[in-house]
Amino acid sequence: MNEHDSETMAGMLNEKGFEPEEEKNNADIVIINTCSVRENADNRFFGTLGQLKKIKEANPEFVACVCGCMMQQQHIIDQVKSKYPWVDLVFGTHNIHQFPQLLDNVINERKKIVDVWQDGGAIVEGLPAKRLYDFKALVNIMYGCNNFCTYCIVPYTRGRERSRRPEEIIKEVKELVATGAKEITLLGQNVNSYGVSKYEDGYCASEENGMDFADLIYALNEIEGLERMKFMTSHPKDLSDKLIQAFKDCDKLCNSIHLPVQAGSDNILKRMNRKYTKADYLVLIDKLRTAVPDMAITTDLIVGFPGETEEDFMETMDLIEKVRYDSAFTFIYSIRKGTPAENYEEQVPEEVKHDRFNRLLERINEISGEINKTYEGTIQKVLVEGPSTSKKGEDTLAGRTESGKLVNFPGSEELVGQIVNVKITQGKQFNLKGIIEA
Ligand code: SAH
Ligand code: SF4
User: Which ligand sits nearest to residue 341's alpha carbon?
Assistant: First the structure.
């Protein structure tokens, strides 16, 4: 979500004639787009912001901007104002569309501006974006979140759920395909509730034309020239049988799903306000694998939620054995100010959290490696994303299978952006190796 917001701001700057500059000391403007999901990101923000002071002192024309989720929290704005008074522009997640105007005011009137909206307000369509890649694109289908998981700051920083009109999404995807996009990833905090949430004028896709998330997938699947569709993120409590059917019916929908489970213990899931049990989740996995046997499943896991006992943690370990995830993002619980879990007693000691995290990660990685081994000898359709970052010279290209696996293989850079057949020669823990199949 933040990455796509950054693309939008880059697009706006591009329209104003600015160009990207790798070295921040040489830049006229720096924007720090912040994330507040975990504490680590908060800490990195203040460290990075501090580094801009020297540039500002050396060059009074330099413009320092900060935006994103952290700015939606008053205590952060207060901290920026008191400790970093030289920052020129502060804005939030709800008024990104105003960024060009705010920047003009800062530059022309030489004043400092703090403008953060507390509410979601209108969805503004048609904003420019400077995409990182031509051949794959992120597409927001909705904004905000209504779920209030007790550990999570997102509903407070991104506001209530609002869905874009289906016709706007379809139009955007068609335009992207016309300019070379082969793959799109639909974005929302919980895409499964797409259409249910209201547009700013009260318009509700599912009430007016019965359009829900699965219907949107079916509609996008019709777009000629589009090759691959993915989405994130999908909340298990709202994953419908209709969407599972769409995986069978829609040839462009990739055989992969990111289905964050967070924890394996029913007690912890309840206290996280996730609204499903471990058994409910396993039923979903079973349905998905019955519908699409080679479905790659990935997840998010939190260890050390307040009150998590060793038995609770063992439920998470048991769950990963049962599901056998292709990969997982594993997080150590971090207290977020203003969330219900901030005040839960029985916070888990740091060393216990780290120990559990390490045990979990080790097993997750082993399972990933075992699954990757089963790809050996198969032929995969790979979207070539760019030159490989692998140190060993011979694997010059990197790309992704339909199931989202990273593959390194030799080939010419002209293939970037193309879909090629690759024979997998080796399944490693974090990626696959292969050779192009003629
Ligand atoms: N809307 C998405 C998640 C957005 S946040 C969803 O519901 O799946 C991405 C991930 O960050 C979450 O899935 C969760 O695993 C993690 N996360 C959120 N808040 C956290 C916290 N306070 N501490 C640790 N991890 C957290
Ligand atoms: Fe956070 Fe839960 Fe909303 Fe995801 S669904 S953004 S974890 S509150």
Answer: 1
Q: Is ligand 2 within 6 A of the CB of residue 152?
A: yes
Q: Considering only CA atoms, which residue is closest to atom 2 of ligand 2?
A: 149
pLDDT for 124: 74
Give every residue of the chain whose pLDDT is below 70, as ranges. Answer: 120-122, 197-203, 205-206, 208-209, 390-395
Ligand index nearest the alpha carbon of residue 189: 1
Domains in the chain: boundaries: 2-115, 131-254, 255-374, 379-436
Token representation of residue 75: 């205590």
Structure confidence by residue, pLDDT tens digits, 78-136: 999 999 999 999 999 888 999 999 999 999 988 888 888 877 666 777 777 777 788 99
Per CATH, 2-115 and 255-374 having the same topology is answered: no
Which ligand places an atom closest to the C-alpha of 157? 2
Segment holding 260, helix H or strand E: none
- Is 145 labeled as ligand-binding? yes
Atom in ligand 1 nearest the alpha carbon of residue 260 = 8
- Report how far ligand 1's centroid is from the alpha carbon of 359 (Å): 20
- Look at residue 198 in the predicted model and tell me its pLDDT: 64
**CA-147 nearest atom, ligand 1:** 7
What does the block give as tokens for 277?
A: 């049990």
- The predicted pLDDT at position 301 comes to 98
Residue 152 annotated as binding? yes
* Residue 272, both tokens: 């996280």
Three-state DSSP class for 52? helix
Contact 145 CB / ligand 2 (< 6 Å): yes
Give dist(CA 70, CA 92) in Å, integer.
Answer: 8
How many whole angstroms from 146 Cα to the centroid of ligand 2?
8
pLDDT value of position 200: 59
- Going by CATH, does the domain composed of 379-436 fall within 2.40.50? yes
Taking the domain 255-374, which CATH number applies?
3.30.750.200
> Structure pTM?
0.91
DSSP type of residue 197: S
Question: Which architecture characterizes domain 131-254 according to CATH?
Answer: 2-Layer Sandwich (3.30)
What is the Cα–Cα distance from 264 to 267, expressed in whole angstroms? 9
Query: What is the CATH T-level fold of the domain 2-115, as seen in this structure?
Result: Rossmann fold (3.40.50)
